[in-house]
From TrEMBL:
Gene Ontology biological process: transmembrane transport
One of the Pfam families matching this protein, by short name: DctP
Signal peptide as annotated in the record: 1-25
A GO CC annotation given for this chain: outer membrane-bounded periplasmic space
PANTHER family (alphabetical): DICARBOXYLATE-BINDING PERIPLASMIC PROTEIN, PTHR33376
Alphabetical keyword list: Plasmid, Signal
The protein's name in its UniProt record: TRAP dicarboxylate transport system, periplasmic component (DctP-like)
Length: 337
């Protein structure tokens, strides 16, 4: 027996025999994973959730069943974050901007005009800086798995074309619930109105707000063109999304289950970024076709905006964010070289 065993081992046969046993011994329990998100099923967010659902099923032999809940049907970003912390919901994807009440440092990503392009953003979010911030969620009851692309944000409104900053004067502009956004847009002369995304369409429809800012993919998938006439390409902030898991739930999973989730999350990230970037190329033509009047801000005007936003940047730095901002700018210039 002993001899046979050593012969098998030596020939590598043992590995062949033992492999299927090891696979079936993987510790995966049948589980239902509720995955909430704010945009529609047909949005870039929705398509990536669908990818994740299918990929998780594939990797777990159908045991890890993810169910996507679109349109903030499980709640706004902030409500879902709290549900994850409490263990009442397993997963979500949403903006990092709404996480600032939990980990203040995330506000660094809301500062304008940091990234020049998506490649810089990918390198920073997937690199040590992005990972360090995500890790800060751990002792707050959340696990930050991967960053997806929301995209460069642009302005829309129902009042007038915005060709220079002064055109924003007096416009009631919905912003995310985040102090940097409020300071930034008040600094530009608008009246910043913080509101959850789930309330945004109605707020524009009823005139509670005149405008908002989001990537073109969202302006398309959330049908903002129905209630907004003017689109200004400003690319003032690069916005990520973050895929979150409830720490309480995640800690109760087996190592095999966690490995599957981590790997599927990375695959979903790669799918989502590629898909969003392709989709965004079509969006401008689509929105024009829907009747939006579109203009691009000139470099000179963007330069003026950079100047005007300095007080908001200084406030962030003075409020304890100076080192973090320096570190982020350092990371970006490393990629730029
Ligand atoms: C916003 C964000 C949205 C996210 C989404 C609902 O304007 O850009 O994309 O919050 O998860 O709120």
């Amino acid at each position: 027996m002993k001899l046979l065993r050593s012969v098998l081992l030596a020939t590598g046969l043992a590995a062949a025999i033992l492999a299927p046993v090891a696979a079936s011994a993987q510790d995966i329990k049948p589980r239902l994973i509720r995955f909430g998100y704010g945009l529609s099923e047909s949005s870039n967010q929705g398509r990536a959730v669908k990818f994740f659902v299918e990929d998780m099923a594939k990797r777990s032999g159908g045991k890890l069943k993810v169910k996507g809940f679109a349109d903030a049907s499980l709640g706004s970003d902030i409500q879902m974050q709290n549900a994850l912390i409490g263990g009442a919901q397993e997963m979500m994807v949403g903006s990092t901007a709404t996480l600032v009440g939990i980990v203040k440092d995330f506000a660094v990503f809301d500062l304008p005009f940091l990234f020049n392009n998506e490649q810089e953003a990918d390198a920073v979010f997937d690199g040590p800086f992005g990972q360090k911030l995500a890790a800060k969620l751990n002792d707050k009851g959340l696990v930050g798995l991967v960053y997806w692309e929301n995209g460069f944000r642009n302005l829309t409104n129902s009042k007038r074309p915005v060709e220079k900053v002064e055109d924003l004067k007096g416009i009631k502009l919905r912003v995310m619930q985040n102090p940097v956004y409020i300071d930034m847009f008040n600094g530009f002369g608008a009246n910043a109105v913080p509101l959850s995304f789930s309330e945004l369409f109605t707020a524009m429809e009823t005139g509670t707000v005149d405008g908002q800012e989001n990537p073109v993919t969202t302006i398309q998938s959330s049908k903002f063109y129905e209630v907004q006439k003017y689109l200004t390409i400003s690319k003032h902030v690069y916005s990520p999304w973050i895929v979150l898991a409830s720490k309480r739930w995640y800690d109760g999973l087996s190592a095999d289950e966690r490995k599957i989730i981590n790997e599927a999350a990375v695959a979903s990230r790669d799918f989502e970024r590629k898909d969003s970037r392709e989709a965004s190329k079509q969006s401008i033509a689509y929105l024009k076709d829907k009747g939006m009047q579109i203009n691009e801000l000139s470099d000179a005007e963007l330069g003026r905006m950079r100047e005007m936003v300095k007080p908001a940047m200084d406030k962030f730095a003075a409020d304890g964010g100076a080192d973090l901002l320096n570190e982020l700018q350092g990371e970006i210039s490393k990629v730029r070289k």
